[in-house]
Specification:
This protein has 275 residues and is mainly beta. 5% of the residues lie in helices and 45% in strands. It has three domains: 110 residues, no CATH class; 62 residues; 97 residues, no CATH class. The strands form seven sheets. A six-stranded mixed β-sheet has the order 1-8-7-6-3-4, with no helix packed on it. The C terminus is likely disordered.
C-alpha cells in the first residue's frame, strides 16, 4: 500500500481515529509549512534513498519521530516518508506534498516490488499511459503526449513488447483497442483507433505512417486499395497502404454472414438473397 499525504488522525466526522497511526506504531506528529516568500520547508531523501534525488521544496509536511524506516526527512531532520512492514504487507507513506519525481517513485516501486502493467520507453517524461479492462478481458489503451513535440516510443504490457517505434504526435491523445470484439472480429491490438462499427466493416482512424491492426476472426476480410492483408496461424494483420498524412481513416470490410431464412433461401445479414 502507498499512502500519499498526512497519516489520518480523524475520521470523516472529525472524531479522533488513530487506527492507521497505531498500526504503524507512530508517535505524535508535528507540522511544518512554508511561509512564502521568506521560508520554504523541504523534504530530503535519506537512507537507501539518499542518492535518489535532491531536496524538494514543499508547502506542508507532517513530521514524525524517526524509527529507522525513514526514506524522507524534513529540514529539521524529522521523518516524513517511510517504508514499513506491517503483518504480511508493506506500506510506504509520504507525508507531505512531495512532487512527481520519477527517480524517487521508481525507486519506491522497485523497493515494494510493484511492476507497472504498462511501460513506456522514452528518454524523458511527459507521456501518460493507462488502460481499462472489462470482465471479458477487453481493454482500451490510453496514450497521451503532454508536450508540444512528436515522440517515438516503445510500449510494453506486463513485460511483453506491444509496439516498437510508435509515433505519438504532439499533444496526441489516443484510445487504442486490445482484445476488443466487434462485428465478430477480435482486435488483438491496433495502432489505429476505432471510430465506426457496422455489421460488415470496422472504421479505423489512422495514427501512424503505416498502421498495423492485428485481428482474429473466422470471417473473411475483403480486399481493398486502402490496406493489405496478411494471415498466419496466429492472426490476420491489416496494414494501411497510405499514411496518416494522406488519409485519415480506413474501412476494414468483412464478408457478411450467411443465414437460412427458413424458406430454403440463403441470405446475407443485410437481407440480400444469394443467387
Amino acid at each position: 500500500m502507498i499512502l500519499y499525504g498526512e497519516i489520518p488522525e480523524y475520521d470523516m466526522e472529525g472524531h479522533s481515529c488513530l487506527v492507521i497511526k497505531d498500526a504503524l506504531k507512530l508517535k505524535e506528529a508535528s507540522y511544518h509549512e512554508s511561509v512564502q516568500p521568506t521560508y520554504f520547508t523541504s523534504m530530503t531523501c535519506c537512507g537507501e534513498f539518499a542518492e535518489t534525488t535532491a531536496s524538494q521544496p514543499v508547502e506542508r509536511i507532517q513530521c514524525l519521530a524517526k524509527d529507522g524506516t525513514e526514506i524522507l526527512t524534513s529540514y529539521e531532520d524529522e521523518m516524513c516518508g517511510f517504508i514499513k512492514t506491517v503483518g504480511s504487507g508493506v506500506i510506504c507513506a509520504v507525508t507531505g506534498d512531495y512532487p512527481a519525481d520519477k527517480k524517487f517513485w521508481s525507486r519506491v516501486f522497485e523497493q515494494m516490488e510493484i511492476c507497472p502493467a504498462i511501460e513506456i520507453s522514452y528518454y524523458r517524461d511527459g507521456i501518460y499511459a493507462s488502460r481499462t479492462r472489462d470482465g471479458k478481458g477487453q481493454e482500451l489503451f490510453y496514450l497521451i503526449n503532454l508536450d508540444c513535440e512528436d515522440k517515438v516510443i516503445t510500449v510494453r504490457e506486463e513485460g511483453h513488447l506491444l509496439w516498437e517505434k510508435f509515433e505519438l504526435g504532439q499533444k496526441a491523445s489516443l484510445v487504442l483497442p486490445r482484445n476488443v470484439v466487434v462485428s465478430g472480429v477480435e482486435i488483438m491490438k491496433s495502432t489505429a483507433e476505432i471510430f465506426k462499427v457496422t455489421e460488415s466493416s470496422i472504421g479505423f482512424s489512422l495514427t501512424q505512417m503505416e498502421d498495423a491492426i492485428y485481428l482474429h476472426t473466422d470471417r473473411k476480410l475483403l480486399p481493398s486499395e486502402e490496406y493489405t492483408i496478411y494471415t498466419d496461424d496466429s492472426w490476420t494483420v491489416v496494414r494501411s497502404r497510405k499514411g496518416k498524412r494522406n488519409r485519415d481513416y480506413i474501412n476494414v470490410r468483412v464478408e457478411e454472414r450467411r443465414r437460412n431464412d427458413g424458406q430454403g433461401h440463403v441470405r446475407t445479414e443485410s437481407g440480400m438473397p444469394l443467387m
